[in-house]
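Before the break, one more example. Copy the sequence into your notebook; we will annotate it together after we see the structure.
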Amino acid sequence: MNAKSNLKFRLIVMNFLEFAVWGAYLTSLGRYLGNIGLGSHIKWFFAMQGIVSIFMPTLMGILADRRIQAQKVLSLCHGLAGIFMLGAGYYCLSAGDAVQFGPLFVLYSISLAFFMPTIALVNSVAYNALREQNMDPVKEFPPIRVFGTIGFICSMLMTNFLKIDGVAMQDSYTQLMSSGLLSLVLCVYALSMPKCPVNRSEGKTNFVDAFGLKAFTLFKDSQFAVFFIFSMLLGASLQITNGYANTFLGSFAADPALAGTFAVKHSNALIAISQASETLCILLIPFCMRKFGIKKVMLIAMMAWVFRFAFFGLGHPSMPGVLLFVLSCIVYGIAFDFFNISGSLYVEQRTGADIRSSAQGLFMMMTNGFGASVGTLAAGAVIDACDVFNTPANWPKAWFIFAGYALVVALLFAVCFKYKHVPEANEVEKTNA
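Here is what the structure looks like once it is written out:
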């Protein structure tokens, strides 16, 4: 195995573990919380992913740019995230049927605070390693990132089908323990990654340079500012189905005729189709970025979110309605990848080496931070207004509201983001000032 192939394999393992950590609980946590009587608090558990992403990815990105090598920051974050997630699982084990919102939420939130920065850090470590081997991240990273999605799927399927003491992990606190253990594995593995550069230049005379806040100056570029603002607005859609899709599908169990259907009994496995779709859509990104440019790629993602929500509203666990659930999961691959991965690559292309980690953290802050936190809380307000837990027949109404929001964002983006794309193989993305 030559040096480049060996590097790709190592990056594949890193991405596999990174998203296996998340997949162990992300789509099934809402179902578990509902089982233990904390259904009304689901929105806070998923909003917290956004709240910590407002500041933690940026802070850890600055640390990686200015003070400590990125692979070491990645290891530190996963070590702490794993310890606190294991603590959350152990609390649930010891509390039995008396799990309280406060202790669980605190332990879970601290774990998230250190996990969320790792998504951007993994990208930074991978991009740096590829550049060191004179490989193009736009071409080489998407096939590597596919294995992150495969890791997510493997964790989801394990959580769906594996039973511990007769209880499926998707209905149990064991999903938290599984995530914590995987995080500790990656804590150790991250230290084997190629060393990343740290910019410790002397003579810093102002606050912005001293604390690595230069990434925020990207907002001076009007089109970069528009890109980040709409990334935030679209980011509002990210956690809606993570928080409520499994809970929605589980609500059909109240009907004995539907309780045994695959979509209800194995909802986590059904939702895994979303991640399977990701593995294919990621491979389309290099072609689409070069052929269409970031604006059209983002518009495609936005319209995919419209269909993602609409198909949930129109679907039903029995045939043929279940096929609409499947279609919703298929378009998710486009909705997620064409936004998250393409957006990350766009930021990579348009920023200098001295602020790349910080800029990736800023992108995470706008999408998984402000966007996801506000979006999740707003979605929770919609769910509460529709009273779906007392009147399950109102679930479609909520999904259609979410679809309408995504459509409005897409239309506004088409008008506001001024962009000129030159479809050449080696063309760096450009925007008009």
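The mean pLDDT is 86. The longest strand covers residues 163-164. Try to locate both features in your own notes.
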